[in-house]
Amino acid sequence: MTLEVIGISVLWLFLFGYIIVGSIDFGAGFFSAYSHWANKQHILHRIIQRYLSPVWEVTNVFLVFFFVGIVGFFPKTAYYYGSILLVPASISIILLAIRGSYYAFHTYGGTERNWYLIAYGLTGLFIPASLSIVLTISEGGFVEVGASGVTLDYGKLFASPLSWSIVLLSVTSVLYISAVFLTYYADEAKDERARALLRRYALLWSGPTMLSALLIIYQLRYHNPEHYANLWNVAWMLVISFLFFVITVWLLWRQRRFGWAFIALLFQYAFAFYAYGISHYPYLLYPYLTIYDGFTNETMAMALIVAFIAGLLLLIPSLYLLMRLFVFNKAYVKGKWEGGKG
Amino acid sequence: MNGYDPVLLSRILTGLTLTVHIIYATIGVGVPLMIAIAQWVGIRKNDMHYILLARRWTRGFVITVAVGVVTGTAIGLQLSLLWPNFMQLAGQVISLPLFMETFAFFFEAIFLGIYLYTWDRFENQKKHLLLLIPVAIGSSASAMFITMVNAFMNTPQGFEFKNGEFVNIDPIAAMFNPAMPTKVAHVLATSYMTSAFVLASIAAWHLWKGNRHIYHRKALHLMMKTVFIFSVASVLIGDLSGKFLAEYQPEKLAAAEWHFETSSHAPLVLFGMLTEDGEVKYAIKIPYALSILAHNHPGAVVTGLNEFPEDERPPLYIHYLFDVMVTIGVFLMVVAAAYWLGSIFRWKWTAKKWFFGLLVAGGPLAMVAIEAGWYLAEVGRQPWILRGYMKTAEGATSSAHVDTMLVLFCLLYMVLVIASAIVLIRMFRRNPVERELAERSNNGEVAP
Ligand code: HDD
Ligand code: HEM
Ligand code: HEM
């Protein structure tokens, strides 16, 4: 394995982490708002708050880690993506800022407003949609490199069916991933009513995610034939991913082993995400930037990898502690220590 | 696009984001330490007042952290969005501390989550206090790492520059550049001092209004002692920062001091005005003081601004920023010393209403000093973004939309700052300390 491949694998892992924890967070926000609107607030609110409260800041760090890491390992991405993403990324930042801060204001500061809840729910869908544009752009065809620098063709981007399918996948995935996780979480909490409702949502969104994924593959064929051809080389991964999808849906359907259903979902997304990433190789931005010409110098790469390993040694025990105390702690999940906050 | 200047707009937007971020970041660095001090004193003295202080500060802290996190995310992305050329070049050498910073954030975020939700989960309060240590270490470490990056922009090293590219890169040498020791130390000391003073100001505010509850007195006393220690440290390290500048960035010091001709026995110029033909008027001149600040010796030679090519001189208005910072620094140290001596010798005037008024002003003033200090450091680096290697104008984006983004971010920050202030005020108004004390004493936790 070359240093370049190690670097991109590490980053891809963290992006995957962000997609999972971010989706749970964004989807939970949407369900929370929706249930309020549909007068089902009493069923979902507590279970969602109990999960989100201790972990929301950690979710954000996954994103920070990714964008700092990619500029560290591949400084040229700062030049290419930095130049073109000013508007889309700024919009994402603003949405993230509103969502993050208002979550804290609401949860800890006790602001109680309906418009807040609506904004919170909707940003949960807009943020993944706006972030997913980066993946679309990376497929090439929307960027021009001229004498005055790199520019993005917004007209083309908005007219492209590919970008809309990717947006569709991001939104449906957010809802599906978070519904499956929260079903499991509600099951741990022995909250039957919440579990039943969330299980319905999970089943409801399973089909659309699969369809939009297929749609993307179909459109890739026309948009980026090279990537499409490479995707066939890893078709076996997509097949495995699909099998895991079947397992999740089946377990949900039979109402058994919700924990395993969520683990199968993790594998489903991991295989699909890595298949996508591997077939994207070696491009960071079709056709201008590969991981090889964008890479930092060797000394820095080694230093970053050493820092990464040292960092993991620090983080894994801490994350384990967080999980033990909150996410996988039966007493906490069931609502004991509710008054423990502050 | 008449007069559209992406470089200028990028500078304004960067400055704006950092101006907002630094308020919350300073609190983020300092307040965990103050909470830890209060909780520790509370455990040692078995005094529930201090524990309650720690609890209430923590609740407010969460709100400021949230804004710190989102504005930090903004500046982190904006570094690449607004300065793509700079990041592409500098990223080769200095991305290591940036990367390590994210681990510090991770560490802090995880333990803050745990700390917040485990107040009543441990029989032994000490175990709960232990959870705060990683939070304090994480946030101070993140300040250290980001300040290392900033120090690198001032005194870049750890590479060779050949044909417009960096080669033979040494990330460790880049991190431990000459600006690093004083900068990191000054930033940390001033963050602790400012956070302590902000908390002291809140207590002083209650006393000023006539509320003489022992809870506020204890809070004020604890924080003013802390302020005194860190303000002495800040001023001492500030003096070292001046010596650092004299040696490595003499043009910044010369511009800050309106010291044009190289000379020995240089006086320190305070305040004043600059006439059109470059004469200093109405200033207070402290003889030899600049020579002492720069080299610890009244007869030492201090390099003047005229030694530098005209297009490499920083703007002269940084003089006022320097004055503001130093004046506030000395003033706050004197106030803290007076408070402390007053409490030892039982001076009457340090318990008077006007003195509490001074203490109320101290917190905001310290924050002003932080902002002035950063503007001095950043504007004083101009026209360089990477001193000696890349001018600010070369680093910026050429995107056509910086103006719209500037407007959007202005709105965003206004909303964030105002909303966070309202939330904080309401949070503490709704649940005044008297009521919380009464409730807890009913539960047998505290004496009323
Ligand atoms: C409460 C805040 C505060 C106070 C009271 C002081 N400072 Fe300061 N100063 C800062 C907050 C600050 C800062 C915000 O932390 C800066 C900006 C960048 C940096 O490294 O620290 C800074 C920078 C800074 C610099 C520029 C360093 C550089 O650009 O590399 C100098 C020379 C001093 N300070 C000197 C002093 C002196 C002589 C003080 C004596 C009273 C003083 N400061 C008090
Ligand atoms: C947090 C406190 C800080 C404040 C208040 C601050 C403020 C400012 C201001 C006002 C400018 C515009 C200067 C001008 O154009 O005349 C600026 C520029 C800049 N600062 Fe800072 N800064 C801070 C810390 C940092 C740190 C820690 C870094 C880097 C890691 C940094 C990186 C930059 C960059 C890249 C620019 C743009 C280039 C330039 O104008 O020099 N700043 N900052
Ligand atoms: C260019 C300069 C800077 C950048 C790029 C930057 C980046 C960031 C980022 C990305 C975050 C959010 C991390 C998260 O998700 O938890 C953050 C938060 C934070 N930053 Fe900054 N930062 C800068 C300047 C500073 C400075 C100068 C300080 C301290 C003196 C500082 C101290 C902090 C702290 C303590 C936090 C944690 C949030 C809090 O506790 O309030 N930052 N910063």
From TrEMBL, chain A:
It is found in: Cell membrane. InterPro entries: Cyt-d_oxidase_su2. Keywords: Cell membrane, Membrane, Transmembrane, Transmembrane helix. One of its GO terms (cellular component) is plasma membrane. It is a multi-pass membrane protein. Pfam families: Cyt_bd_oxida_II. Signal peptide: none annotated. Its main location: membrane. Belongs to the cytochrome ubiquinol oxidase subunit 2 family. This is Cytochrome d ubiquinol oxidase subunit II. It comes from Anoxybacillus flavithermus. The lineage of its organism: Bacteria, Bacillati, Bacillota, Bacilli, Bacillales.
UniProtKB/TrEMBL annotation, chain B:
It is a multi-pass membrane protein. The chain crosses the membrane at residues 20-41, 61-82, 94-117, 129-153, 184-208, 220-238, 317-342, 354-377, 405-425. One of its GO terms (biological process) is aerobic electron transport chain. The keyword ATP-binding does not apply. It comes from the Bacteria. It is found in: Cell membrane. Pfam families: Cyt_bd_oxida_I (PF01654). One of its GO terms (cellular component) is cytochrome complex. Keywords: Cell membrane, Electron transport, Heme, Iron, Membrane, Metal-binding, Transmembrane, Transmembrane helix, Transport. GO terms for molecular function: electron transfer activity; heme binding; metal ion binding; oxidoreductase activity, acting on diphenols and related substances as donors, oxygen as acceptor. PANTHER family: CYTOCHROME BD MENAQUINOL OXIDASE SUBUNIT I-RELATED, CYTOCHROME D UBIQUINOL OXIDASE. Belongs to the cytochrome ubiquinol oxidase subunit 1 family. This is Cytochrome d ubiquinol oxidase subunit I. It comes from Anoxybacillus flavithermus.
